[in-house]
Amino acid sequence: MKSFEETVISRLQLVEREVERMRVKESPDMSSYLGITAKAADSAKLGGIDAADYQKGWIPTGGWKIYQTNWINNVGGAQTDYSIGDKIKLTNDGSTKYFYIISAPTPDSLKISGDSTGLVGAAGTALTNIYYSHATSPVGFPQWFDYTPILTVSGGTAPTYATFINRYCVVGKLVIVYCRWSNGSGGTAGAGTNQIVITLPITAYQENIITGSGGLANGSTFLAGLGIYLFGTYFAIMKTAAFVTGADQNDAYRELSFTFTYEAA
Fold this sequence. Notes:
Mean pLDDT: 86
Order of helices and strands: HHHHEEEHEEEEEEEEEEEEEE
Helix content: 10-25%
Number of helices: 5
CATH architecture of the largest domain: Sandwich
Strand content: 35-45%
Number of domains: 3
Distance between the termini: 80 Å
Largest sheet: 10 strands, antiparallel
């Protein structure tokens, strides 16, 4: 058995060793106390995934392939692990692209919308650097995307505009659309007494409803209080109780500006 003096000396030697470690900025080795052999790397603690990705709101995955321009397949758990409104980041055709998930109709495929170029490549092309996010605003995600609606007038012609801004954002299943069309001169004047019908960026869940508001100008005439009437995959612009027709946008100076929301199908 150690004497009292020996015990004190042994303790002091331990303290001196720990002080020396601190002096050279070394962390005390606690492995023997914790029953481990080494400090685990952050990535190992997270199943081999870099913690920085999680901090930015992104979860890495892999194995996805192109099915069509705006479809991905070979997705494990497509119907159970992903929701409409989730966000995607991936590399395709040499560039980073971002998308919203807008449906998960089969066990292994997802329909997406976002990057204006869509997915480039033949069916079966492997995608790389794939991440998904359930977060509202993962780092780097643009939130708003441009789209080009198709304007038609049955029995007439649709107007065209020098400024033709159309953008949408998805929050869960809520789709928010902002449009601003204007023309000071030139372009194509509208014609015909039938309504202007315009395609939606994402199919609506409900049909035959009025939503949104905005303003309209045609020459010296300005009308406020526009509404948007949804048809499912199309919408039409309304003024008071009547639809806006091709002939309502037939002046050299014409403008439409409006915002509306709806639930994605």
